[in-house]
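I'll show a record.
***
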Amino acid sequence: MSSSSLPAHSMNRREAIAGTIGAGLALALGCDARASLNPVPKRKDMKITCIIRYQIDPFQRNAFKKYAENWGRIIPRCGGELVGYFLPYEGTNDVAWGLIAFESLAAYEAYRVRLKADTEGQANFAMAQEKHIILREERNFVEVAEGTFGVASSLPAKG
C-alpha cells in the first residue's frame, strides 16, 4: 500500500467497534452502503439482529476462528441469516462478536430448535466446551431506530 493511499488518521478502538457493529447491522438489514450515500434497505423481512458478545480465551483465538467458520455452514442451514463473526484485532484481545439476523423472535426460537437438533451444530458446541474456548457469552437483540441508520456524513468529502 502506498503512502498516498493510507487513511488520513488512524481509527481508535471505539470507532473500530462501532464501525464493525454498524457494518454488521447494515448487512443484516440488507443495506448496501456502496450503492449510495443513503443506503436503502433491500429486504424488509430482517427485523431483528442477535448480537452475541463472546469473551474468549485469547490463547485460543485460532480455535475460536474455526468455531466461527463452522457456523458459516450451520447457521444458514438452520434458518438464521449470518451477518458475520468478528475476531479481536486491535485493543482488547478476548472479545469477539457474532451477528445473526432474523425476521422475528419467533423465527429465532424456531432457529434455536433446529440448531439444537443439527448434528454439526452439536459437534461445534461440544468442541467449544471441550477446549474451553468461550469463557462468557451474552446475547442482545437489537432493531434499528427509524431515521437513524445509514445516515451519511454531511461533511464534504476530503480529496
Q: What stands out?
A: The helical segments are 13-28, 61-78, 105-117, 119-131.
